[in-house]
Specification:
The chain is of the alpha/beta class. It is 32% helix and 24% strand. Bound molecules: iron/sulfur cluster.
């Protein structure tokens, strides 16, 4: 890793205020011409962390007779063969701001390098994406009609889709309150309770059922087993989105087992035991619980043997694999969210340093020292466009070669060879 040169250039002071540092988003360089500065948010973040007010501005076409301000500028190669820059400038006579500008540019210059970035696949499973797309389609179809479109929670969807739905006038709610006959209700990927389904019919709502097929299969299996008088052990977590709808289809017959010990409370005297792995619960987390259940009740049978969701396992495996191949793992998402912390935990289990990034400005030069390969995973809590902004900013610190990794478990059909 080599330190990039910092050049000091005279620039016009138009728009510069004493006490603040100007960080260009574009800049005219006498050597390379007009350059964009994708890493400007990183520079701005470092300055703000030092308590310096910052103004981001386009300095590419400032024409002036007076080049009376000083700018500190670094150029570096881009992956597309072009050149990027990052810079900071201070008003004439503002020694404190100029010193801060120089120091921060030197810090970022020290970590300029050509790097690889390994991106983990989207955090959204196929069921959630399908439901998001069904909701968007319904909202677009009914946008200019009298019919309201309501998407029921938990509406797990990318933030871009949530914004699109809001723009189309759709609402997200946890009940059918206020909906009139003919209004449209979208059921979420992890399904709804039997009572809510009946309520939608009673209110004469138009139902867009976006329940994931794996969830629907689990719900049907639970209802069938209950009809046969079975006790059902749902291997999963009480607070998971799919739990309440499944429980509602087999009232009084479901025991949720989130640990092997929870399987002890079932009495075989109350009827045959069937079990289900909750859709959305990873097969790895479920395996010891299922093993404990089978050893306690050897006659227990799976209620739906062919339908298993591998999405959580595939996501965890992908993050682990990306982290294993990286010097630093950036997890993009809300630092308060359990999903972002979960992704960080997987990366740390792989022995890789992990940083939660809730904002582009959270990336600091010290994080990138001696880092050749950056891993990146997006949390479901990431703000719209944040991952793209992080990639863009990192692309302004030298050539950034981006690859995407996705581990995926596929159903094998027919003869294996
Ligand atoms: S069952 Fe799997 S694919 Fe379907 S919504 Fe749940 S996590 Fe997603």
């Amino acid at each position: 890793m080599s330190r990039a040169d910092v050049r000091e250039l005279p620039v016009p002071s138009i728009g510069m205020q004493r006490g603040e540092v100007l960080v260009p988003t574009h800049v005219g360089d006498p050597v390379h011409g007009l350059l964009s500065c994708p890493a400007a948010p990183l520079v701005a973040g470092s300055l703000r962390a030092r308590g310096r007010p910052v103004q981001l501005a386009d300095l590419s076409d400032e024409a002036s007779a007076d080049f009376d301000a000083r700018m500190y500028l670094v150029t570096c190669p881009r992956e597309d063969g072009g050149t990027a820059a990052f810079a900071a400038a201070a008003a004439p006579g503002d020694a404190l701001s100029a010193a801060a500008a120089r120091t921060v540019i030197e810090e970022w210059a020290a970590v300029c390098a050509n790097r690889s970035l390994l991106l983990s696949a989207t955090p959204w499973c196929s069921g959630a994406l399908h439901a998001a797309s069904a909701a968007s389609k319904a909202a677009a179809e009914h946008q200019n009609t009298e019919r309201r479109v309501c998407v029921l929670t938990p509406a797990a969807m990318p933030p871009e889709t949530a914004a699109e739905l809001a723009g189309l006038g759709a609402t997200v709610a946890d009940s059918l309150e206020g909906l009139e006959p003919g209004d449209v209700v979208v059921f979420p990927a992890h399904g709804v309770t039997a009572q809510l389904r009946a309520d939608a019919a009673r209110r004469e709502l138009v139902v867009v059922d976006a329940t994931c097929p794996i969830v629907a299969a689990a719900q049907e299996a639970a209802a069938r087993a209950a009809d046969r008088g079975h006790q059902i052990v749902l291997v999963g977590q009480p607070e998971q989105a799919a739990t309440i709808p499944i429980v509602s289809l087999a009232p009084g017959r479901v025991t949720v087992a989130e640990t092997p010990a929870k399987t002890a409370g079932i009495s075989a005297a109350q009827g045959p035991v069937s079990y289900l792995l909750e859709p959305g619960f990873s097969v790895e987390a479920g395996a010891p619980i299922l093993s404990a259940l089978r050893s306690r009740y050897p006659a227990a049978r799976p209620a739906v043997p062919a339908e298993v969701c591998y999405a959580p396992s595939d996501r965890a495996g992908t993050i682990y694999s990306v982290a294993l191949g990286s010097d630093l793992m950036l997890v993009v998402g809300d630092p308060q969210s359990s999903d972002a912390r979960y992704a960080c935990g997987i990366a740390r289990d792989a022995g890789t340093k992990a940083q939660l990034i809730g904002n582009v400005e959270d990336i600091k030069p010290a994080m990138l020292a001696s880092v050749n390969t950056i891993g990146m995973a997006e949390s479901t809590s990431a703000a719209a466009g944040l991952a793209a902004r992080v990639l863009d900013a990192l692309s302004g610190l030298g050539r950034l070669t981006i690859a995407r990794r996705r581990l995926s478990t596929e159903k094998a059909t027919g003869a294996l060879g």
